[in-house]
Amino acid sequence: MNNVLTKELCLSNIQNLTEKMLLDLLEDEKYSVIITDEQHLKEEKEVCWQRRKATLQRVVHKTTISIRHKREKISARLEIGTVNVEERVFSQCDLYISYTKKNIEQVEKFLGEVLKKSIFVLVEPNIWERASQLAGYYQPLISLRYQRDDIKTALDTHLFWQIFLINQGWVDFLCKPLERITLRQLRVKLRRLRSCLAFFKPVLEQPQASLWQTELRRQGEELSLLRELDVALMAIEKFSANTTQEELAQEYLAKILSQARAIEAKRVKQKMQLATLTFTFARLIMWLSDEPLTASCERYGLESFFRRRIREWSKNIISLTQRYPDFSDVEKMHKIRIKVKKFRYVMMSFPEINHNTNTMLRRLKKLQDMLGFLHDEYINKELAQRIMQADGSKTSLKQTVFCGWESAKTAEALAIVPDLWEDFCEDLELWRDTI
Hints:
Shape: globular
Number of domains: 2
Mean pLDDT: 88
Low-confidence stretches: none
Oligomer: single chain
Radius of gyration: 25 Å
Helix content: 55-70%
Strand content: 15-25%
């Protein structure tokens, strides 16, 4: 049955091309386009919008098309129109591409050609659910595709919307690579999706799942130096110079770091092409839509899987005390930080397990913030060393600024981290017993 099940990708054209322009774009020497049906519709429906119900109205022109190449045929649809909800109006300029397990390879080839010609981004095919996602208040458990006690629908519901956000996050970053906030948000979205994929690891086919984890990690690593430079620049901005020498050193460092950031942003923008990224995320969605689950997952119900998996993760988190007992070791503390961050992303992403967690999550956030602060300080010092080695002039001035960075706070943080860890683990054990 899965062989004939038809699914859809939806690509929104950022340039808001007209229908004729899109049709012209789709047709070339390789592909011919035949219009098979047209409809002009006015629709409205109640949707969840910013924590309340609202009426979404849509005026849309739907054009069903058949895309042909030799003996191959791909079904597609254009939807051009406007959507109005709560006095907010946004345009719809979408290309829907239908695919089955049998023609995924043909669809990928066609998609690769289309993405070379105009700027597209993946979006939620269901316009009603897309509205909730745009409002920033998407509720997976009331999604139309979600089914209680079905791991496959839970996988799709929890991961698809994150993929759409990351694809849009790359659009935002590549448009404004010098903005710190777009970079930070994109990195958070990438880490969250990686964490959620890791949570489902026991029921996902290998090595495909690991390869997708590697791809998401690669994207995050491309952005890591930019983030390090941003952290250093923010630290310099907070530093209060007490002397003219320190002020000059502060300005000198800010100039060096700003120049380095601009160069790195240009490198990332040139390397990370949006067409390639969108194509990659489309392939990820098609893989998730196909049969990514192992045969062993049939013995799990959704509820039992979530309960068993989070108990395993909780146990592993608690055991970190034995594996990395020395909190003064920066490398070991960084490993704890990564695992704690991954755990928090999972807890915040899955409402199925996020029950009676307020106290635990507050302590987890405080611990995560403190570990993050210490990690940033370590990165700043490493960066300072590289700068001083590269440029011998004004070394003493630079040393003054870097050594002054939050030194008292660093010592204080190192002293209280063990207590924060102990408090969190106590709450985690208590919560784990209630699952």
